[in-house]
Amino acid sequence: MIRTASTGRRSERHWRPSAPFDLALTLSPHRHGGGDPAWRRTPDGAIWRTSRTPEGPGTLRVTVSGGEVLGQAWGPGADWLLETLPSLLGADDDVAGFAATLARLTRSGDPRQARAAAFVAGLAGRAGGLRIGRSLRVFEALAPAVLEQKVVGREAWRAWRFLMGRYGEPAPGPAPEGMHVMPPPEVWRAIPSWDWHRAGAEAVRARTIVNAARHAEKLERTTEASAEADRLLRALPGIGVWTSAEVRQRAHGDPDAPSVGDFHLPGIVGYALTGQKTDDDGILDLLEPFRGHRHRVVRLIELSGVRPPARGPRMAPRDYRAF
């Protein structure tokens, strides 16, 4: 059931999902570190997001009560944010198809596949509210993903906060203090080298984002075609398998786009499914029976907290601002 209403400069939408879901689990992939200027969770349980929509900047506030979702939005992009709210929250996610995949593997007669399916089914039961949603904004997912290439999270998130604070615009409406809307592609193209340096992003990542910004319009036309997005993204210099997957997970809601090339995943996925660490080829082999839902399986494993024993120091963040 959908009801929409306009209250002054605020627009609202009520939507009741077909099944219970977890708001924070579903929207957390769109958060880029603590203090993300585009994502906040307030003490009342509401999640706030900003987005540069095709209609302009907008702020979205989402709450759930009694199984009903309430979306409230402000700014020129408010109507677009409310129209696409179900997609963002996973209304298009093929959860039934995933259940059928698990059932098929359980009956396959292959002991390894059956054990893996039973393990993953248990994880899915504990995170039953997880949905793979899609933001439908490709460049909005791309810029922070590039900043996160081959660095520790704190380093990437520091750069994201700096660039958003300096070049983004204040969020429309009564958003929490410090929230900003991502700048448009033309602004990213014009960021001077010294501000990339101040952000702590070296020239390679800066050039990758600037070049991608030149092709943003073409990338945005792929919101219904994850495979085409993968082809176009990986044709751009500096964008490989990992970055493409990170973008398609968020913008396209692709449940089959595992982040191959991630530093931590070979250990986490291999240990969870076999008790042994593996490599990127090993991950793909272990996930192949789950094809169609490989990213979903990785996400469930990440949420489970299952980890191999820690050995050695963590990778330290770098700071290019000192160079």
TrEMBL record:
It catalyses: Hydrolysis of alkylated DNA, releasing 3-methyladenine, 3-methylguanine, 7-methylguanine and 7-methyladenine. InterPro entries: Alkylbase_DNA_Glycosylase/TA, DNA_glycosylase, HhH-GPD_domain. One of its GO terms (molecular function) is DNA-3-methyladenine glycosylase activity. Signal peptide: none annotated. Residues 27-57 are annotated as: Disordered. SUPFAM superfamilies: DNA-glycosylase (SSF48150). Keywords: DNA damage, DNA repair. Its EC number is 3.2.2.21. The lineage of its organism: Bacteria, Bacillati, Actinomycetota, Actinomycetes, Streptosporangiales. This is DNA-3-methyladenine glycosylase II. GO terms for cellular component: cytoplasm; protein-DNA complex. GO terms for biological process: base-excision repair, AP site formation; DNA alkylation repair. It comes from Microbispora catharanthi. It comes from the Bacteria. The keyword DNA repair applies.
